[in-house]
Amino acid sequence: MLNVALPKGRLGEKVYSMFAVSGFECPEVLGDSRKLIFENPAANVRYFWVKPSDVSVYVERGAADIGVAGKDIIEEYNPDVYELLDLDTGKCRMAVAARKGFRDNPDSTLRVATKFSHIAREYYSRTGREIDIIHLNGSIELAPVLGMSDVIVDIVETGTTLKENGLEVIQTIMPISARLIANRSSFEFKKNDILRVIDGLKTQLEVKK
Amino acid sequence: MAERLNLKGEEKVIQKLRSLYSSYGYRTYKMSRFEEYDLYAQNKDFLVSGNIITFTDTDGTLMALKPDVTLSIVKSLAKSTASVSRVCYDENVYRVSDRSGTFREIMQAGLECIGNVGPVELSEVAILAQKSLEAISGKSVLTISHMGIVEAFVSEIADEEVKAAALKALSNRNVSALEALARDNEEYSQVIGKLAELAVMAGDNREVFSSLRAMGADEASLKELEEVVSRLDERRLRIDFSVLGEMNYYNGITFRGYVEGVPVSVISGGQYDRLMARMGRKAKAVGFAVYMDALERLLSSAPEYDADTVLVYGDSDDPAAVLDRAEAIRKEGKSVVAMKEVPFSIRYREVVTMGGAQNA
Protein backbone atom coordinates (compact mmCIF):
# COMPACT_ATOMS: atom_id res chain seq x y z
CA MET A 1 0.00 0.00 0.00
CA LEU A 2 1.44 3.36 -1.05
CA ASN A 3 0.83 6.08 1.56
CA VAL A 4 0.54 9.57 0.12
CA ALA A 5 0.45 12.78 2.17
CA LEU A 6 -1.40 15.56 0.35
CA PRO A 7 -1.38 19.21 1.41
CA LYS A 8 -4.88 20.38 2.36
CA GLY A 9 -6.29 22.90 -0.06
CA ARG A 10 -6.43 23.71 -3.74
CA LEU A 11 -2.90 22.57 -4.49
CA GLY A 12 -3.54 19.17 -2.91
CA GLU A 13 -6.73 18.70 -4.91
CA LYS A 14 -4.97 19.58 -8.13
CA VAL A 15 -2.11 17.20 -7.37
CA TYR A 16 -4.54 14.42 -6.43
CA SER A 17 -6.11 14.60 -9.87
CA MET A 18 -2.65 14.18 -11.39
CA PHE A 19 -2.16 11.07 -9.22
CA ALA A 20 -5.57 9.76 -10.30
CA VAL A 21 -4.70 10.09 -13.97
CA SER A 22 -1.47 8.19 -13.23
CA GLY A 23 -3.51 5.18 -12.07
CA PHE A 24 -3.73 5.90 -8.34
CA GLU A 25 -7.40 6.73 -8.14
CA CYS A 26 -9.42 7.11 -4.96
CA PRO A 27 -12.56 9.11 -5.86
CA GLU A 28 -13.59 9.52 -2.22
CA VAL A 29 -10.66 11.87 -1.67
CA LEU A 30 -12.40 14.82 -3.28
CA GLY A 31 -15.72 14.07 -1.58
CA ASP A 32 -17.26 16.37 0.97
CA SER A 33 -16.23 14.34 3.98
CA ARG A 34 -14.49 15.15 7.21
CA LYS A 35 -12.51 11.95 7.05
CA LEU A 36 -8.74 12.34 7.03
CA ILE A 37 -7.74 9.04 5.44
CA PHE A 38 -8.95 7.60 2.15
CA GLU A 39 -8.05 4.20 0.87
CA ASN A 40 -8.48 2.42 -2.43
CA PRO A 41 -7.26 -1.18 -2.03
CA ALA A 42 -7.83 -1.85 -5.75
CA ALA A 43 -5.28 0.79 -6.71
CA ASN A 44 -3.14 -0.10 -3.68
CA VAL A 45 -3.05 3.49 -2.46
CA ARG A 46 -3.98 5.45 0.64
CA TYR A 47 -4.23 9.24 0.79
CA PHE A 48 -4.33 11.56 3.75
CA TRP A 49 -4.81 15.30 4.03
CA VAL A 50 -2.36 17.13 6.25
CA LYS A 51 -1.43 20.72 6.90
CA PRO A 52 0.85 21.76 4.02
CA SER A 53 3.75 22.60 6.31
CA ASP A 54 3.51 19.14 7.92
CA VAL A 55 3.82 17.06 4.74
CA SER A 56 7.59 16.82 5.01
CA VAL A 57 7.32 15.63 8.62
CA TYR A 58 4.99 12.77 7.64
CA VAL A 59 7.32 11.77 4.81
CA GLU A 60 10.57 12.10 6.73
CA ARG A 61 9.22 9.91 9.53
CA GLY A 62 7.86 7.35 7.11
CA ALA A 63 4.15 7.69 8.01
CA ALA A 64 3.77 8.69 4.36
CA ASP A 65 5.93 7.09 1.68
CA ILE A 66 5.60 10.07 -0.61
CA GLY A 67 4.03 13.48 -0.41
CA VAL A 68 3.69 16.83 -2.08
CA ALA A 69 5.32 19.82 -0.42
CA GLY A 70 6.15 23.34 -1.51
CA LYS A 71 9.80 24.17 -2.08
CA ASP A 72 9.42 26.80 0.67
CA ILE A 73 8.66 24.08 3.24
CA ILE A 74 11.54 21.92 2.02
CA GLU A 75 13.99 24.81 2.27
CA GLU A 76 12.70 25.93 5.64
CA TYR A 77 12.69 22.54 7.39
CA ASN A 78 15.39 20.81 5.33
CA PRO A 79 13.91 17.33 5.79
CA ASP A 80 16.06 14.28 5.02
CA VAL A 81 13.98 13.11 2.03
CA TYR A 82 14.38 12.60 -1.69
CA GLU A 83 13.08 15.42 -3.85
CA LEU A 84 12.00 13.52 -6.91
CA LEU A 85 10.06 15.84 -9.16
CA ASP A 86 9.19 19.49 -9.73
CA LEU A 87 5.42 19.44 -10.25
CA ASP A 88 5.46 22.85 -11.93
CA THR A 89 2.36 23.88 -10.05
CA GLY A 90 1.62 26.00 -6.97
CA LYS A 91 4.12 28.43 -8.39
CA CYS A 92 5.13 31.56 -6.52
CA ARG A 93 8.31 33.05 -5.13
CA MET A 94 10.02 33.66 -1.81
CA ALA A 95 10.74 37.36 -1.62
CA VAL A 96 11.80 40.24 0.56
CA ALA A 97 9.21 43.02 0.70
CA ALA A 98 9.13 46.40 2.37
CA ARG A 99 7.03 49.54 2.49
CA LYS A 100 7.05 51.48 -0.77
CA GLY A 101 10.03 53.79 -0.89
CA PHE A 102 11.87 51.89 1.83
CA ARG A 103 15.58 52.72 1.99
CA ASP A 104 17.80 50.20 3.75
CA ASN A 105 20.18 51.70 6.24
CA PRO A 106 23.13 49.25 6.33
CA ASP A 107 24.37 50.92 9.50
CA SER A 108 21.65 49.37 11.67
CA THR A 109 20.32 45.89 12.36
CA LEU A 110 17.67 44.92 9.83
CA ARG A 111 14.45 43.77 11.45
CA VAL A 112 12.93 40.93 9.44
CA ALA A 113 9.42 39.60 10.10
CA THR A 114 8.76 36.16 8.68
CA LYS A 115 7.23 32.73 8.98
CA PHE A 116 10.36 31.34 7.33
CA SER A 117 13.07 32.05 9.91
CA HIS A 118 15.54 29.55 8.53
CA ILE A 119 15.30 30.78 4.95
CA ALA A 120 15.60 34.40 6.08
CA ARG A 121 18.62 33.70 8.27
CA GLU A 122 20.33 31.74 5.50
CA TYR A 123 19.65 34.47 2.94
CA TYR A 124 21.04 37.31 5.02
CA SER A 125 23.99 35.31 6.34
CA ARG A 126 25.21 35.04 2.75
CA THR A 127 25.55 38.80 2.67
CA GLY A 128 26.84 38.95 6.25
CA ARG A 129 24.07 41.34 7.21
CA GLU A 130 23.17 41.60 10.88
CA ILE A 131 19.45 40.90 11.26
CA ASP A 132 16.85 40.53 13.95
CA ILE A 133 14.28 37.85 13.12
CA ILE A 134 10.73 38.39 14.26
CA HIS A 135 8.97 35.07 13.89
CA LEU A 136 5.27 35.41 13.09
CA ASN A 137 2.68 32.80 12.15
CA GLY A 138 0.47 34.88 9.88
CA SER A 139 -0.46 38.36 8.61
CA ILE A 140 3.22 39.04 8.11
CA GLU A 141 2.41 42.14 6.04
CA LEU A 142 1.23 43.90 9.14
CA ALA A 143 4.70 44.06 10.71
CA PRO A 144 6.32 46.71 8.46
CA VAL A 145 3.07 48.68 8.26
CA LEU A 146 3.10 49.04 12.04
CA GLY A 147 6.81 49.72 12.06
CA MET A 148 7.57 46.52 13.97
CA SER A 149 9.92 45.33 11.21
CA ASP A 150 11.83 46.91 8.33
CA VAL A 151 11.15 44.14 5.84
CA ILE A 152 9.32 40.84 5.55
CA VAL A 153 10.40 37.55 4.00
CA ASP A 154 7.36 35.76 2.65
CA ILE A 155 5.73 33.95 -0.22
CA VAL A 156 4.47 36.20 -2.97
CA GLU A 157 2.02 34.87 -5.51
CA THR A 158 0.36 37.79 -7.29
CA GLY A 159 1.50 40.60 -5.03
CA THR A 160 -2.05 41.85 -4.45
CA THR A 161 -1.90 41.59 -0.65
CA LEU A 162 1.39 43.47 -0.67
CA LYS A 163 0.03 46.22 -2.89
CA GLU A 164 -3.13 46.67 -0.85
CA ASN A 165 -1.00 47.18 2.25
CA GLY A 166 1.40 49.61 0.64
CA LEU A 167 4.27 47.09 0.34
CA GLU A 168 6.41 46.03 -2.61
CA VAL A 169 8.90 43.30 -3.43
CA ILE A 170 12.50 44.50 -3.19
CA GLN A 171 14.35 41.19 -3.75
CA THR A 172 13.42 37.71 -4.92
CA ILE A 173 15.07 34.96 -2.88
CA MET A 174 13.98 31.92 -4.86
CA PRO A 175 11.21 30.61 -7.08
CA ILE A 176 8.81 28.19 -5.37
CA SER A 177 6.77 25.31 -6.75
CA ALA A 178 5.30 22.06 -5.48
CA ARG A 179 7.66 19.07 -5.28
CA LEU A 180 7.16 15.34 -5.03
CA ILE A 181 9.15 14.08 -2.05
CA ALA A 182 9.80 10.52 -0.86
CA ASN A 183 10.99 8.83 2.29
CA ARG A 184 14.47 7.36 1.75
CA SER A 185 13.61 3.96 3.16
CA SER A 186 10.22 3.69 1.44
CA PHE A 187 11.94 4.48 -1.84
CA GLU A 188 13.81 1.18 -1.53
CA PHE A 189 10.87 -0.97 -0.49
CA LYS A 190 8.10 0.55 -2.62
CA LYS A 191 10.23 1.48 -5.57
CA ASN A 192 7.97 0.18 -8.31
CA ASP A 193 4.92 2.09 -7.11
CA ILE A 194 6.92 5.27 -6.60
CA LEU A 195 8.51 5.02 -10.05
CA ARG A 196 5.03 4.52 -11.54
CA VAL A 197 3.88 7.71 -9.84
CA ILE A 198 6.89 9.61 -11.16
CA ASP A 199 6.37 8.33 -14.70
CA GLY A 200 2.67 9.14 -14.62
CA LEU A 201 3.23 12.67 -13.32
CA LYS A 202 6.09 13.31 -15.73
CA THR A 203 3.94 12.34 -18.71
CA GLN A 204 1.28 14.84 -17.64
CA LEU A 205 3.86 17.56 -17.10
CA GLU A 206 5.24 17.05 -20.60
CA VAL A 207 1.79 17.24 -22.13
CA LYS A 208 1.24 20.51 -20.26
CA LYS A 209 4.43 21.94 -21.69
CA MET B 1 17.36 -19.17 24.72
CA ALA B 2 17.01 -15.48 24.03
CA GLU B 3 13.31 -15.70 24.87
CA ARG B 4 14.03 -17.27 28.26
CA LEU B 5 16.59 -14.62 29.06
CA ASN B 6 13.90 -12.04 28.34
CA LEU B 7 16.26 -9.94 26.25
CA LYS B 8 15.02 -6.82 24.57
CA GLY B 9 14.99 -6.75 20.78
CA GLU B 10 18.05 -4.54 20.55
CA GLU B 11 20.00 -6.76 22.90
CA LYS B 12 19.21 -9.79 20.78
CA VAL B 13 20.42 -8.01 17.67
CA ILE B 14 23.59 -6.87 19.43
CA GLN B 15 24.32 -10.46 20.42
CA LYS B 16 23.79 -11.66 16.87
CA LEU B 17 26.03 -8.93 15.52
CA ARG B 18 28.76 -9.69 18.05
CA SER B 19 28.90 -13.33 17.13
CA LEU B 20 28.73 -12.46 13.42
CA TYR B 21 31.66 -10.06 13.69
CA SER B 22 33.72 -12.38 15.84
CA SER B 23 33.27 -15.14 13.28
CA TYR B 24 35.17 -12.84 10.88
CA GLY B 25 37.94 -12.30 13.41
CA TYR B 26 36.78 -8.92 14.69
CA ARG B 27 37.76 -8.23 18.29
CA THR B 28 35.49 -6.28 20.56
CA TYR B 29 36.88 -2.94 21.55
CA LYS B 30 35.81 -1.46 24.85
CA MET B 31 36.71 2.13 25.49
CA SER B 32 36.30 4.95 27.89
CA ARG B 33 33.21 7.12 27.74
CA PHE B 34 35.28 10.29 27.56
CA GLU B 35 37.69 11.62 25.03
CA GLU B 36 39.56 14.87 24.72
CA TYR B 37 37.37 17.42 23.00
CA ASP B 38 40.13 18.38 20.55
CA LEU B 39 39.75 15.11 18.68
CA TYR B 40 36.18 16.01 17.69
CA ALA B 41 36.77 19.71 17.21
CA GLN B 42 39.27 18.90 14.44
CA ASN B 43 36.89 16.55 12.65
CA LYS B 44 33.48 18.06 13.23
CA ASP B 45 32.10 17.32 9.79
CA PHE B 46 32.76 13.63 10.25
CA LEU B 47 30.24 13.49 13.08
CA VAL B 48 26.55 12.89 12.55
CA SER B 49 25.83 16.01 14.56
CA GLY B 50 28.23 18.77 15.52
CA ASN B 51 26.88 19.15 19.04
CA ILE B 52 28.98 17.57 21.74
CA ILE B 53 28.57 17.36 25.52
CA THR B 54 31.73 18.76 27.07
CA PHE B 55 33.07 19.10 30.59
CA THR B 56 36.33 20.10 32.22
CA ASP B 57 38.46 17.31 33.64
CA THR B 58 40.20 17.63 37.02
CA ASP B 59 43.40 18.84 35.34
CA GLY B 60 41.58 21.47 33.30
CA THR B 61 41.49 19.55 30.00
CA LEU B 62 38.30 20.02 28.03
CA MET B 63 36.73 16.59 27.67
CA ALA B 64 33.75 15.28 25.70
CA LEU B 65 31.27 12.49 26.16
CA LYS B 66 31.88 10.35 23.10
CA PRO B 67 29.60 11.37 20.22
CA ASP B 68 31.25 8.83 17.92
CA VAL B 69 33.39 5.72 18.14
CA THR B 70 35.33 5.64 14.87
CA LEU B 71 37.58 8.58 15.72
CA SER B 72 38.56 7.04 19.05
CA ILE B 73 39.38 3.73 17.41
CA VAL B 74 41.49 5.36 14.70
CA LYS B 75 43.33 7.41 17.30
CA SER B 76 44.12 4.50 19.55
CA LEU B 77 45.28 1.99 16.95
CA ALA B 78 48.98 1.75 16.20
CA LYS B 79 50.15 3.57 13.12
CA SER B 80 51.32 0.40 11.40
CA THR B 81 50.30 0.05 7.77
CA ALA B 82 51.60 -3.46 7.23
CA SER B 83 48.92 -5.45 9.00
CA VAL B 84 45.16 -5.15 9.27
CA SER B 85 43.35 -4.49 12.54
CA ARG B 86 39.78 -5.64 12.77
CA VAL B 87 37.78 -4.24 15.65
CA CYS B 88 34.08 -4.09 16.44
CA TYR B 89 32.15 -2.32 19.15
CA ASP B 90 28.76 -1.74 20.69
CA GLU B 91 28.80 1.38 22.77
CA ASN B 92 26.62 4.19 23.94
CA VAL B 93 27.34 7.50 22.28
CA TYR B 94 25.95 10.91 23.14
CA ARG B 95 24.65 13.23 20.51
CA VAL B 96 21.77 15.42 19.51
CA SER B 97 19.05 13.43 17.86
CA ASP B 98 17.97 14.92 14.53
CA ARG B 99 14.37 15.23 15.45
CA SER B 100 14.06 16.22 19.07
CA GLY B 101 17.02 18.59 18.98
CA THR B 102 18.09 17.44 22.45
CA PHE B 103 20.97 15.22 23.58
CA ARG B 104 20.33 11.52 23.75
CA GLU B 105 22.22 8.42 24.72
CA ILE B 106 22.29 6.30 21.60
CA MET B 107 23.39 2.70 21.28
CA GLN B 108 25.64 2.25 18.30
CA ALA B 109 27.28 -0.93 17.04
CA GLY B 110 29.75 -1.24 14.22
CA LEU B 111 33.14 -2.29 13.04
CA GLU B 112 36.32 -0.83 11.61
CA CYS B 113 38.91 -2.54 9.44
CA ILE B 114 42.13 -0.51 9.48
CA GLY B 115 45.55 -1.00 7.94
CA ASN B 116 46.59 -2.56 4.67
CA VAL B 117 43.04 -2.67 3.32
CA GLY B 118 42.63 -4.29 -0.10
CA PRO B 119 39.90 -5.88 -2.22
CA VAL B 120 39.44 -8.73 0.26
CA GLU B 121 38.83 -6.43 3.19
CA LEU B 122 36.53 -4.10 1.22
CA SER B 123 34.35 -6.98 0.10
CA GLU B 124 34.36 -8.49 3.56
CA VAL B 125 33.12 -5.30 5.19
CA ALA B 126 30.37 -4.88 2.60
CA ILE B 127 29.34 -8.51 3.13
CA LEU B 128 29.24 -7.92 6.87
CA ALA B 129 27.06 -4.84 6.34
CA GLN B 130 24.62 -6.93 4.35
CA LYS B 131 24.67 -9.72 6.92
CA SER B 132 24.12 -7.21 9.73
CA LEU B 133 20.97 -6.05 7.95
CA GLU B 134 19.81 -9.67 7.67
CA ALA B 135 20.34 -10.07 11.41
CA ILE B 136 17.99 -7.15 11.98
CA SER B 137 15.19 -7.85 9.53
CA GLY B 138 14.06 -10.24 6.83
CA LYS B 139 13.50 -7.35 4.45
CA SER B 140 16.49 -5.17 3.89
CA VAL B 141 18.40 -3.35 1.16
CA LEU B 142 22.01 -2.24 1.07
CA THR B 143 22.54 0.76 -1.19
CA ILE B 144 26.08 1.25 -2.39
CA SER B 145 28.09 3.71 -4.43
CA HIS B 146 31.70 4.68 -5.01
CA MET B 147 32.97 8.14 -4.17
CA GLY B 148 35.70 7.81 -6.80
CA ILE B 149 33.14 7.73 -9.59
CA VAL B 150 31.23 10.77 -8.38
CA GLU B 151 34.40 12.61 -7.57
CA ALA B 152 35.95 12.06 -11.01
CA PHE B 153 32.89 13.76 -12.50
CA VAL B 154 32.57 16.67 -10.07
CA SER B 155 36.31 17.42 -10.17
CA GLU B 156 35.59 19.09 -13.53
CA ILE B 157 33.50 21.69 -11.70
CA ALA B 158 35.89 24.42 -10.55
CA ASP B 159 33.25 26.61 -8.91
CA GLU B 160 32.93 25.29 -5.33
CA GLU B 161 29.43 26.66 -4.88
CA VAL B 162 28.13 24.91 -7.99
CA LYS B 163 29.91 21.75 -6.96
CA ALA B 164 28.31 21.73 -3.51
CA ALA B 165 24.87 22.44 -4.97
CA ALA B 166 25.31 19.63 -7.52
CA LEU B 167 26.33 17.13 -4.86
CA LYS B 168 23.44 18.10 -2.62
CA ALA B 169 21.01 17.66 -5.52
CA LEU B 170 22.50 14.26 -6.34
CA SER B 171 22.14 13.08 -2.76
CA ASN B 172 18.47 14.13 -2.83
CA ARG B 173 17.86 12.58 -6.29
CA ASN B 174 16.79 16.06 -7.27
CA VAL B 175 16.97 15.91 -11.05
CA SER B 176 15.15 19.18 -11.61
CA ALA B 177 17.70 21.01 -9.46
CA LEU B 178 20.52 19.44 -11.50
CA GLU B 179 18.82 20.48 -14.73
CA ALA B 180 18.47 24.03 -13.44
CA LEU B 181 22.14 24.07 -12.41
CA ALA B 182 23.15 22.86 -15.85
CA ARG B 183 21.11 25.64 -17.46
CA ASP B 184 22.63 28.32 -15.24
CA ASN B 185 26.21 27.07 -15.60
CA GLU B 186 26.66 26.23 -19.23
CA GLU B 187 30.36 25.52 -18.96
CA TYR B 188 29.56 22.58 -16.68
CA SER B 189 26.33 21.50 -18.30
CA GLN B 190 27.82 18.30 -19.67
CA VAL B 191 29.20 17.02 -16.40
CA ILE B 192 26.09 18.08 -14.45
CA GLY B 193 24.07 16.18 -17.05
CA LYS B 194 26.09 13.12 -16.14
CA LEU B 195 25.29 13.61 -12.46
CA ALA B 196 21.61 13.75 -13.41
CA GLU B 197 22.07 10.41 -15.18
CA LEU B 198 23.66 9.00 -12.02
CA ALA B 199 20.72 10.26 -9.96
CA VAL B 200 18.16 8.21 -11.87
CA MET B 201 20.32 5.24 -12.78
CA ALA B 202 18.28 2.06 -12.41
CA GLY B 203 18.17 -1.53 -13.56
CA ASP B 204 20.09 -4.64 -12.59
CA ASN B 205 23.76 -4.42 -11.73
CA ARG B 206 25.01 -5.46 -15.15
CA GLU B 207 22.94 -2.76 -16.83
CA VAL B 208 24.16 -0.17 -14.33
CA PHE B 209 27.81 -1.09 -14.91
CA SER B 210 27.46 -0.96 -18.66
CA SER B 211 25.77 2.44 -18.55
CA LEU B 212 28.50 3.68 -16.18
CA ARG B 213 31.15 2.52 -18.66
CA ALA B 214 29.28 4.21 -21.49
CA MET B 215 29.29 7.46 -19.47
CA GLY B 216 33.05 7.27 -19.12
CA ALA B 217 33.09 6.69 -15.35
CA ASP B 218 36.46 6.38 -13.65
CA GLU B 219 37.58 2.85 -14.53
CA ALA B 220 39.60 2.02 -11.39
CA SER B 221 36.71 2.98 -9.10
CA LEU B 222 34.27 1.15 -11.32
CA LYS B 223 36.33 -2.04 -11.14
CA GLU B 224 36.58 -1.80 -7.37
CA LEU B 225 32.82 -1.34 -7.03
CA GLU B 226 32.17 -4.20 -9.45
CA GLU B 227 34.39 -6.50 -7.45
CA VAL B 228 32.66 -5.71 -4.16
CA VAL B 229 29.19 -5.93 -5.68
CA SER B 230 29.92 -9.34 -7.23
CA ARG B 231 30.32 -10.77 -3.72
CA LEU B 232 27.01 -9.43 -2.39
CA ASP B 233 23.49 -10.79 -2.50
CA GLU B 234 22.08 -9.03 -5.54
CA ARG B 235 18.46 -9.32 -4.41
CA ARG B 236 19.22 -7.13 -1.43
CA LEU B 237 21.51 -4.67 -3.11
CA ARG B 238 21.15 -1.47 -5.12
CA ILE B 239 23.82 0.59 -6.72
CA ASP B 240 22.74 4.09 -5.82
CA PHE B 241 24.74 7.26 -6.34
CA SER B 242 22.62 9.28 -3.95
CA VAL B 243 24.68 7.57 -1.26
CA LEU B 244 27.36 10.19 -0.73
CA GLY B 245 29.79 10.42 2.13
CA GLU B 246 31.47 13.64 3.20
CA MET B 247 34.21 14.09 0.59
CA ASN B 248 36.80 15.25 3.10
CA TYR B 249 36.65 11.85 4.77
CA TYR B 250 35.35 9.19 2.42
CA ASN B 251 37.05 8.15 -0.78
CA GLY B 252 36.08 4.65 -1.94
CA ILE B 253 32.93 2.59 -1.62
CA THR B 254 30.20 4.08 0.54
CA PHE B 255 26.99 2.40 1.55
CA ARG B 256 23.80 2.79 3.51
CA GLY B 257 21.44 0.09 4.70
CA TYR B 258 17.68 0.18 5.11
CA VAL B 259 15.20 -2.25 6.63
CA GLU B 260 11.50 -2.20 5.92
CA GLY B 261 9.49 -0.33 8.53
CA VAL B 262 12.30 1.97 9.63
CA PRO B 263 12.13 5.39 7.95
CA VAL B 264 15.84 6.19 8.18
CA SER B 265 19.01 4.33 7.26
CA VAL B 266 20.14 1.92 9.96
CA ILE B 267 23.62 1.28 8.62
CA SER B 268 26.04 3.75 7.17
CA GLY B 269 29.68 3.38 6.27
CA GLY B 270 32.42 3.18 3.67
CA GLN B 271 36.08 3.61 3.03
CA TYR B 272 37.58 6.62 4.80
CA ASP B 273 41.28 6.88 3.93
CA ARG B 274 40.99 10.67 3.93
CA LEU B 275 39.98 10.78 7.57
CA MET B 276 43.01 8.61 8.29
CA ALA B 277 45.24 11.03 6.39
CA ARG B 278 43.79 13.98 8.29
CA MET B 279 44.65 12.23 11.52
CA GLY B 280 48.21 11.62 10.33
CA ARG B 281 47.74 7.96 9.46
CA LYS B 282 48.99 6.42 6.25
CA ALA B 283 46.87 3.30 6.62
CA LYS B 284 43.60 2.76 4.79
CA ALA B 285 40.36 2.09 6.55
CA VAL B 286 36.83 0.89 5.94
CA GLY B 287 33.97 0.38 8.37
CA PHE B 288 30.37 1.03 9.23
CA ALA B 289 28.04 1.84 12.10
CA VAL B 290 24.67 0.30 12.97
CA TYR B 291 22.31 2.83 14.56
CA MET B 292 20.41 0.89 17.17
CA ASP B 293 18.24 3.86 18.17
CA ALA B 294 16.60 3.78 14.74
CA LEU B 295 15.62 0.17 15.39
CA GLU B 296 13.93 0.74 18.70
CA ARG B 297 10.40 0.74 17.31
CA LEU B 298 10.95 -2.12 14.91
CA LEU B 299 12.44 -4.46 17.49
CA SER B 300 10.52 -3.60 20.62
CA SER B 301 7.67 -5.94 21.36
CA ALA B 302 5.91 -4.90 24.52
CA PRO B 303 4.97 -8.05 26.47
CA GLU B 304 1.25 -8.68 26.59
CA TYR B 305 1.25 -9.25 30.34
CA ASP B 306 3.22 -7.62 33.12
CA ALA B 307 3.12 -10.89 35.06
CA ASP B 308 1.56 -14.31 34.63
CA THR B 309 0.20 -14.41 38.16
CA VAL B 310 -0.75 -11.84 40.74
CA LEU B 311 -0.65 -13.28 44.22
CA VAL B 312 -2.95 -11.23 46.45
CA TYR B 313 -2.33 -11.45 50.17
CA GLY B 314 -3.71 -9.72 53.25
CA ASP B 315 -2.28 -8.35 56.48
CA SER B 316 -3.19 -11.50 58.38
CA ASP B 317 -1.20 -13.76 56.03
CA ASP B 318 2.09 -15.11 57.34
CA PRO B 319 4.87 -13.46 55.27
CA ALA B 320 6.70 -16.78 55.02
CA ALA B 321 3.60 -18.46 53.62
CA VAL B 322 3.21 -15.71 51.00
CA LEU B 323 6.82 -16.04 49.90
CA ASP B 324 6.58 -19.84 49.79
CA ARG B 325 3.40 -19.79 47.78
CA ALA B 326 4.90 -17.34 45.28
CA GLU B 327 8.01 -19.49 44.98
CA ALA B 328 5.87 -22.57 44.36
CA ILE B 329 4.05 -20.86 41.48
CA ARG B 330 7.38 -19.66 40.07
CA LYS B 331 8.55 -23.26 40.01
CA GLU B 332 5.71 -23.96 37.55
CA GLY B 333 7.52 -21.58 35.21
CA LYS B 334 5.27 -18.57 35.71
CA SER B 335 6.21 -15.08 36.73
CA VAL B 336 4.60 -13.96 39.98
CA VAL B 337 4.10 -10.62 41.62
CA ALA B 338 2.82 -10.54 45.20
CA MET B 339 0.76 -7.53 46.26
CA LYS B 340 -2.00 -6.58 48.62
CA GLU B 341 -4.37 -5.36 45.99
CA VAL B 342 -4.46 -5.54 42.21
CA PRO B 343 -3.94 -2.13 40.65
CA PHE B 344 -5.72 -1.31 37.41
CA SER B 345 -2.51 -0.48 35.66
CA ILE B 346 -1.08 -3.99 35.46
CA ARG B 347 -2.11 -6.81 33.14
CA TYR B 348 -1.93 -10.41 34.25
CA ARG B 349 -3.15 -13.83 33.25
CA GLU B 350 -4.48 -15.04 36.58
CA VAL B 351 -5.05 -13.97 40.18
CA VAL B 352 -4.30 -16.26 43.11
CA THR B 353 -5.68 -15.10 46.44
CA MET B 354 -4.26 -16.00 49.84
CA GLY B 355 -6.50 -16.62 52.88
CA GLY B 356 -5.78 -13.27 54.55
CA ALA B 357 -6.92 -11.31 51.53
CA GLN B 358 -10.16 -13.27 51.23
CA ASN B 359 -11.14 -12.41 54.79
CA ALA B 360 -10.39 -8.72 54.40
What share of the residues of chain A does DSSP label as strand, in percent?
A: 25-35%
SSE order of chain B, one letter for each helix or strand? HHEEHEEHEEHEHHHHHHEEEHEHEHEEH
Can you list the strand order of the major beta sheet of chain A?
A: 2-3-1-4-11-5
Point out poorly predicted stretches of chain A.
Answer: none
Q: How widely separated are the two ends of chain A? A: 31 Å
Spans where pLDDT lies below 50 across 5 or more residues of chain B:
none
Average predicted confidence as pLDDT of chain B? 89
Radius of gyration of CA atoms of chain A, rounded to a whole number = 19 Å
Counting DSSP E segments of at least 2 residues, the number of strands of chain B comes to: 14
Read across the widest sheet of chain B, the strand sequence of neighbours is: 1-5-6-11-10-9-7-8
- Morphology call of chain A: elongated
Largest sheet of chain B: 8 strands, mixed
**H/I helix tally of chain A:** 8
Kindly report the oligomeric state of this protein: heterodimer
Instruction: Report the structural category of chain A.
Output: alpha/beta
Helix content of chain A: 25-40%
Structural class of chain B: alpha/beta
Q: Largest chain-chain contact?
A: A-B, 17 and 22 residues
Q: Report on the biggest sheet of chain A.
A: 6 strands, mixed
Plain-language structure description:
The complex is a heterodimer of chains A (209) and B (360). Chain A is an alpha/beta fold. In chain A, 33% of the residues lie in helices and 31% in strands. Chain A contains eight helices and eleven strands. Chain A has helices at residues 10-21, 55-60, 71-77, 117-127, 142-145, 160-164, 184-189, 191-208, and strands at residues 2-7, 37-40, 45-50, 66-70, 82-86, 92-99, 110-114, 131-135, 151-156, 167-176, 178-182. In chain A, strands 2-3-1-4-11-5 form a six-stranded mixed beta sheet. In chain A, strand 7, helix 4 (117-127) and strand 8 form a beta-alpha-beta unit. The longest helix of chain A has 18 residues, at 191-208. By secondary structure, chain B is of the alpha/beta class. Helix content of chain B is 40%, strand content 23%. Chain B has helices spanning 2-5, 9-22, 37-41, 70-76, 119-136, 147-154, 160-171, 175-184, 189-200, 205-215, 219-230, 273-278, 292-299, 319-331, 355-359; strands at residues 27-28, 34-36, 54-56, 62-65, 84-96, 103-115, 140-146, 237-239, 253-259, 267-271, 284-291, 307-312, 336-339, 348-353. In chain B, the strands form three sheets. An eight-stranded mixed beta sheet of chain B has the order 1-5-6-11-10-9-7-8, with helices on both faces. A three-stranded antiparallel beta sheet of chain B has the order 2-4-3. In chain B, a hairpin with a 7-residue loop joins strand 9 and strand 10 (267-271). Chain A binds chain B through residues 60-62, 80-86, 183-186, 188-189, 195, and chain B through 98-99, 139, 141, 143, 172-177, 202, 238, 242, 258-265.
